[in-house]
Each structure stands twice: as C-alpha cells, then as structure tokens.
Amino acid sequence: MANACRCAKKINERATLNLAARDIFHTWKLKREIIIPYAQVRYYLEFDTQRFDLTFSYRFGKAAGNKERRTGIDAEAGRVN
Fold first, then answer.
1. pTM listed for this prediction
2. pLDDT (tens digit, 9 = 90+) per residue, 39-62?
3. Of the chain's two ends, which shows fewer C-beta atoms within 10 Å, N or C?
4. How far apart are CA 49 and CA 34, in angstroms?
5. What is the SS3 string spanning the chain?
6. pLDDT at 78 over 70
C-alpha cells in the first residue's frame, strides 16, 4: 500500500493547505484459494481504501502568549508546618 506524505503549503500567516493520499495505486487486494477434500474455495476481495484528502485550515483571532501556570505545589510551598 503506497501512501503519500502530507504536503503543507502555507498560504499566509494564518492559512495552510494540506494534501494527503492513501493507497494511491489501489493495491490493497486479497486473493485466496483453499483446497480441502470435497471442497474448493476461491475468493477475491478488493478493499475501498484509496483516499485523497485536501484540508484547508485557518486560525482565527490573535496568537495567545504563554500564560503563567499555577499548580497545587506552588500553593503548598508557602505553607509552613
């Protein structure tokens, strides 16, 4: 099964365009033959796995900076036994 890497194209500071492909050559096929006394079975399966994705992403709003995090350890550090 041949997959294509994701190719990201940055349109501007906020917009990106991604292209991805899975099973490009439609190769995921299964062919089996089972032969036992008094029976013979043949089957062929072709899975619908070929997929192409085109994704457009746009980030709204302004970029958020890092916020100061407070944890329970900070609160406990000020306590004295």
1. 0.53
2. 999 999 988 888 888 989 998 887
3. C
4. 25
5. CCCEEEEEEECCCCEEEEEEEECCCCCCEEEEEEEECCEEEEEEEECCCCEEEEEEEECCCCCCCCCCCCCHHHHHHCCCC
6. no
Q: Are 24 and 2 in contact (CB under 8 A)?
A: yes
Tokens, residue 75: 């609160």
Residue with tokens 């940055």: 10
Longest dimension (CA), the chain: 85
What mean pLDDT is reported for the chain?
A: 81
Q: Which residues 6+ apart lie within 8 Å of 44 measured at CB?
A: 29, 30, 31, 32
Determine the pLDDT at residue 67: 72
